[in-house]
Amino acid sequence: MKKIGFLSFGHWSDSPHSQTRSASDTLLQSIDLAVAAEELGADGAYFRVHHFARQLASPFPLLAAIGAKTERIEIGTGVIDMRYENPMYMVEDAGAADLIAGGRLQLGISRGSPEQVVDGWRYFGYQPAERETEADMARKHAEVLLKVLEGEGFARPNPRPMFPNPPGLLRLEPHSPGLRDRIWWGAGSNGTAAWAAEQGMNLMSSTLKFDEGGAPFHVQQAEQIRAFRKAWTEAGWQREPRVSVSRSIFAITTDLDDAYFGGDGESKDQVGFIDGPNKAIFGRSYAAEPEVLIKQLAEDEAIAEADTLLLTVPNQLGVEYSAHVIENILEHVAPALGWR
User: Fold this and answer.
1) Considering its fold, how many domains does the chain have in total?
2) Is the entire prediction scored with pTM above 0.85?
3) Cβ-based neighbours of 336, under 8 Å, separated by 6 or more
4) Residue 266's CATH number
5) Cβ neighbours of residue 159 under 8 Å, at least 6 residues apart?
6) Is the alpha carbon torsion for 124, 152, 199, 45 positive or negative?
């Protein structure tokens, strides 16, 4: 059994072929898609976060709105770039969104990937300390976030406050119990997956990672997941961790499906460079009739290792079509693979 959700990049464009022509379109349709996905029986609604782009950027108003409009579905991010984040303010926003949703927030964070502008985090007021990298800065922000989410007091109260204080040191409010255990790290390598386990974060692995050995993407990703679980056990955490992988999977059941994605049936892994000299491997897309997809996905080692599968959806094709993509997998593929 697997949890199956969707992952939206939240693009918008004024192209006449796009059904998301503005930021307003994307935000409102994201809410509608989460509601539709819950009605279909999906388990999660996740959203990418990118700055300086015509994509979703400020996740917490969106997550809070979805939390208020739904009852069961998990809501989350995949991922928030911690180079840009004030972890204190983020704790307050995340706590409020999680309380509105009744404890359904699953917050994916990471060191981030190349953005639309050079060193965009500098415009947000952040820069690495001397002899530190931007990745070090992101991990430091994440460590502060995790510590403060534990809910322990750390701030000395004013002896003459405007409002009465509880005894002792103060914590940030609102505090949402349990949210600390629902933080995920988007890892791009085996080493960062192990680091995430040491910090007690769940693992979120996308459709790309650094190439570590030359094996097919799904094999390398499965190795990453096993490295994460080994590090988790060695760290001594008592709870069971969560692991998600994302995939572009399209079951072709209509002529429109074939027109949009029939050409992706021969997709292969790709190798390239996205961040300096390190070679990265990009996982293939899956697009075929359901009976073919079932055979292909049964051989994907990383999906087999994960407990959660996030389906990337073509949000610019509109809510109805994106919901159709999700429904196709839930109805025609998942049961045959034992995911449902």
Assistant:
1) 1
2) yes
3) 290, 294
4) 3.20.20.30
5) none
6) negative
